[in-house]
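Budget justification aside, the reviewers requested a transparent look at the raw inputs and outputs of the sequence design task funded under Objective 1. We therefore reproduce one unedited record. The lines immediately below are the structure tokens for a 471-residue chain.
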């Protein structure tokens, strides 16, 4: 967190660094804090007007920007850029590309248009009918050209693997003229010569994917690589129409394919109905699926798609791992009551509810949840436009005790800035803290309801200053 509020249009948090990018009228501001001191120094500013989309790389070194067509027009205009913001007060332009108004990546559902490799030496761009690979250390960023181009007809979206040794891309091709939709994995790694001398190779017209999964009844997909290793990719295939006519919101299927093509299957879920949430463990050893008609079923699968723990059924539609994959929060937000239950994942894959009944709290009107980098605190936010009243953030421990709250007139987004790996240790449960929490719950002491009891009756803003009198 930062010591003073920052007024901005939007923000992006680096995944593995205490760096945040914020959008303003005069450009993009980059703020970096050094734990344990939360207050950052003066921001690094990328002076660009008319920025419509932006993103920050996992290490916080690079920022990607896309300007609106009216703000970046004329001959030789370059709307899509990558900036190195680690060079001091003045950002350095690393890559500048032309971007047509109707090109892929210009809409929020397909942003970012440029995806970084794990070492951030390369970026991948999904262009019309092909995958392009660029390097980020060009001497002349205005003359950037792809060093590798892989032809993928009708590619609609894709995701870059986090694997460290090989650059792979999972590409989604929708149904066309009766042919099924498919997700294909391509190896687009650059050679050592290309990385050093920036030599381009001819277009690969008929590349052979190293893995492929095909399926019908699919209008869009969500691609989720195994964190850290990139050993496989989960595919949530969504259709706007439910063939069984049981759901107004269409249907979803979950598929898995390994990076080498050795495994290619549909994940067998335990209950019929929609898929509410899917999350990989941050260390990539397992994943959790919340699925089925309410009360939803929540199941923990290992990396080979074998179910290893059944959480049972309940009013949940969201799951969040802590950064170490140790503690798990099952949440029921939106039109659900707001119950949150905390679990501790054991080494054998079994999960134990933390604190018994005291490990379940009701957090009314919450919209989002995010774990702190220390893995022992979690933030719940009520944000606009989902709810335009009672906007606030509430901070809880991993065992369900509320430790902080801050109210806002209008809150758009909330989250923790991240830290470099290894900053915080992965600590097990503190049984003394949990015993104290249980005792408070049994005696009705402070914190017995976790701060999530029944909300106060709603009053319009004009009546909030006066004392409330029941009707």
């Amino acid at each position: 967190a930062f010591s003073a509020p920052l007024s901005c249009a939007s923000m992006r948090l680096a995944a593995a660094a205490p760096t945040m990018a914020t959008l303003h009228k005069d450009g993009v501001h980059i703020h970096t804090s050094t734990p344990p001191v939360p207050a950052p120094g003066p921001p690094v500013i990328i002076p660009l007007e008319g920025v419509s989309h932006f993103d920050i790389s996992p290490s916080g070194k690079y920022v990607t920007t896309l300007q609106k067509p009216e703000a970046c027009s004329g001959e030789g205009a370059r709307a899509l850029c990558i900036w190195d913001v680690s060079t001091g007060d003045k950002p350095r332009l690393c890559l500048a590309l032309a971007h047509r108004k109707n090109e892929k990546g210009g809409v929020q559902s397909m942003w970012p248009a440029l995806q970084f490799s794990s070492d951030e030496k390369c970026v991948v761009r999904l262009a019309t009918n092909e995958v392009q690979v660029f390097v980020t250390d060009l001497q002349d960023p205005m003359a950037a050209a792809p060093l590798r181009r892989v032809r993928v007809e009708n590619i609609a979206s894709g995701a870059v693997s986090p694997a460290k040794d090989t650059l792979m891309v999972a590409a989604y091709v929708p149904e066309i003229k009766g042919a099924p939709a498919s997700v294909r994995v391509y190896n687009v790694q650059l050679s050592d010569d290309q990385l050093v001398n920036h030599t381009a190779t001819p277009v690969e017209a008929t590349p052979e994917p190293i893995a492929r999964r095909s399926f019908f009844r699919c209008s869009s997909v969500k691609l989720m690589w195994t964190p850290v290793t990139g050993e496989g990719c989960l595919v949530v295939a969504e259709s706007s129409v439910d063939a069984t006519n049981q759901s107004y919101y269409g249907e979803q299927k979950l598929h898995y394919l390994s990076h080498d093509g050795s495994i290619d299957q549909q994940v067998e879920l335990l209950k019929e109905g929609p898929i509410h949430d899917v999350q990989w463990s941050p260390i990539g050893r397992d994943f959790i699926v919340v699925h089925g008609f309410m009360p939803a079923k929540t199941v923990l699968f290992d990396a080979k798609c074998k179910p290893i723990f059944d959480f049972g059924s309940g009013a949940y539609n969201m799951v969040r791992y802590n950064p170490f994959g140790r503690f798990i929060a099952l949440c029921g937000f939106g039109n659900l009551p707001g119950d949150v239950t905390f679990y501790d994942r054991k080494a054998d894959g079994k999960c134990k509810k933390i604190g018994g009944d005291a490990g379940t709290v009701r957090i009314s009107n919450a919209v989002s949840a995010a774990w702190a980098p220390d893995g022992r605190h979690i933030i719940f936010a009520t944000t606009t436009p989902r709810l335009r009243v009672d906007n606030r953030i509430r901070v809880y421990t991993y065992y369900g005790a509320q430790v902080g709250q801050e109210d806002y007139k209008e809150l758009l987004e909330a989250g923790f800035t991240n830290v470099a790996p290894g900053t915080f240790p992965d600590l097990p449960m503190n049984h003394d803290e949990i015993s104290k929490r249980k005792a408070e719950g049994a005696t009705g002491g402070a914190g017995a309801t976790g701060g999530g009891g029944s909300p106060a009756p709603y009053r319009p803003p004009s009546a909030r200053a006066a004392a409330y009198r029941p009707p």
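DSSP finds two helices and 33 strands in the chain. The helical segments are 192-197, 431-443. Computational costs for records of this kind are itemized in the attached budget.
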